[in-house]
Design brief:
Layout: E1 2-7, H1 16-30, E2 34-40, E3 61-65, H2 69-83, H3 88-93, H4 101-132, E4 140-145, H5 149-159, E5 166-170, H6 184-195, E6 198-201, H7 204-209, E7 216-217, E8 220-221, E9 223-225, E10 249-254, H8 265-278, E11 285-290, H9 294-302, E12 310-312, H10 318-326, E13 330-336, H11 348-355, E14 359-364, H12 371-379, E15 382-386, H13 393-410, H14 426-445
Parallel strand pairs: 1-2, 1-4, 2-3, 4-5, 5-6, 6-9, 10-11, 10-13, 11-12, 13-14, 14-15
Antiparallel strand pairs: 7-8
Helix pairs in contact: 1-14, 4-5, 8-13
Length: 447
């Protein structure tokens, strides 16, 4: 197949979205498909992740396209002045739960900026294609949200007859429900759903939140759930990192706490209870954090008298974060599951799966039966505690106490993963994707 990726998240940008799309491209190209990539040039402040590099990037058709000079000189500078160099997601995450007028203004301004940025990039892509790819025809155009710019480009290129088939990959919903009389985000999401020959979703929860009726094209189902995953080939890079032999129990959390929306304090409460019950000194525990919110992590730990056990590494590269996870005895995961916002499968959990590290998950929110809990149980990764069901708190204490005892007795925690974890490898995911792409292309061409 001849596949055109038009995406805003790709190597070398350090982001979970970049990992997902770069791995899709890597394994599609390896499977023999003719892949072309048009990607957004990373912003000047964006961190680079060189671990995503693969050799085919040197020979395949890949073009990094920047925003217009006008946008970079004025709007991009204004954006940095307003919220700094952090990601837009991080800048507005804490605003989502607020209902005040100021919060509404901030969210509206951010959406306006995002829309203008998207339209600007669409123009740049159109110019590049018209000048350099005017006579090329593709079997499939692959787009991914976030951001809006990618599916908008897919719509534009379909109208230019670059391809008859467009895939829209939803890593998140565009809208979480109507918030005003004129639901602009909802209309945009519906437009993308309607134009797609295949809709891909990062989780069952995201699929459930994204509106739109099920479609069948030529007898082929047009919805596909492809979780984020891991690349088994990356595991070999971290073989030198280990926690074996250390006399302390090392717990690691890497990434955002979303201003407290991700809650880890139940784990600290459990640790305090275990230490008091077993008579173990606090010095046998280390709580490692890497990310922007070390102060918040420390505050949650301090409430349970574990502040001195916190080691704050600050902001690190993805490579350094994975190495830190590999050197741990337990990887800590936090997410949420609410009636409005379900199916949050953070990409970090798949890094833990790749490393085959024990996982302790904490799910905040008002809804039990989270997708992440099911995934952790399915692969035998560890334990997942849902705050909405506090009756299982004692089970978490028992499980964590046994894991700590195993570490102190044997010097390591045994790998108890099941073979089912292999289904989350990107090579497996791409096999499923290729099969569906071939079916959709065949259905639309009558082949």
């Amino acid at each position: 197949m001849k596949i055109l990726f038009v995406v805003t998240a790709f190597y070398p940008e350090q982001a979970i979205g970049s990992v997902r799309i770069t791995k899709f491209v890597k394994y599609l190209e390896r499977a023999g498909d003719d892949v072309t990539v048009l990607s957004l040039a990373p912003a000047p402040w964006a961190a680079r992740d060189e671990s995503l590099w693969f050799s085919a990037l040197e020979t395949m058709h890949w073009k990094s396209i920047d925003q217009s000079l006008l946008f970079r000189r004025f709007l991009q500078k204004a954006r940095v002045a307003a919220i700094g160099s952090q990601s837009a997601v991080g800048a507005v995450a804490s605003e989502k739960s607020s209902r005040g007028f100021t919060s509404w203004v901030k969210r509206t301004a951010q959406f306006g900026y995002t829309l203008v940025k998207a339209l600007d990039w669409v123009v740049q892509v159109r110019r590049y294609v018209a000048r350099n790819m005017a006579h090329e025809k593709f079997d499939v155009i692959f787009t991914s949200y976030p951001s809006i710019a990618s599916p908008l480009c897919g719509l534009m290129l379909k109208r230019m007859r670059v391809s008859d088939s467009v895939v829209v990959d939803f890593r998140d919903p565009i809208t979480y429900g109507k918030s005003s009389r004129i639901d602009i985000k909802g209309m945009i999401q519906k437009k993308f759903l309607d134009m797609a020959s295949l809709r891909v979703f990062a989780s069952e929860g995201v699929k459930g939140m994204v509106s739109g009726k099920k479609m069948v094209i030529g007898g082929v189902r047009s919805d596909l759930v492809l979780n984020n995953g891991f690349d088994p080939e990356d595991r070999s890079f971290f073989e030198d990192y280990s926690s074996q032999g250390s006399k302390v129990f090392k717990i690691v959390y890497t990434g955002s706490l979303y201003g407290g929306k991700r809650e880890v304090s139940p784990v600290f409460a459990a640790i305090k209870s275990i230490l008091e019950k077993r008579g173990w000194p606090r010095e046998r525990i280390e709580l490692h954090y890497a990310g922007y919110e070390g102060a918040l992590f420390l505050d949650q730990a301090s409430k349970w008298e574990l502040g001195p056990s916190v080691v704050d590494h600050g902001v690190v590269s993805r490579w350094e974060a994975v190495a830190l996870q590999k050197s741990s005895d337990l990887c800590l995961l936090a997410t949420w599951n609410t009636r409005e916002d379900q199916g949050i499968l953070t990409g970090k959990v798949f890094e833990f799966f790749m490393l085959r590290k024990p996982v302790l998950g904490v799910v905040s929110g008002d809804l039990s039966g989270s997708e992440i809990k099911g995934v952790i149980n399915d692969v035998g990764a560890g334990f997942c505690y849902e705050i909405s069901d506090p009756s299982h708190f004692s089970e978490m204490i028992d499980w964590l106490g046994k894991v700590m005892e195993e570490k102190f007795s044997n010097g390591y925690v045994e790998d108890r993963y099941k073979d089912t974890v292999n289904k989350f490898g990107y090579e497996e995911s791409v096999c499923r994707l290729r099969g569906r792409l071939r079916a959709i292309v065949g259905a639309e061409t009558g082949a």
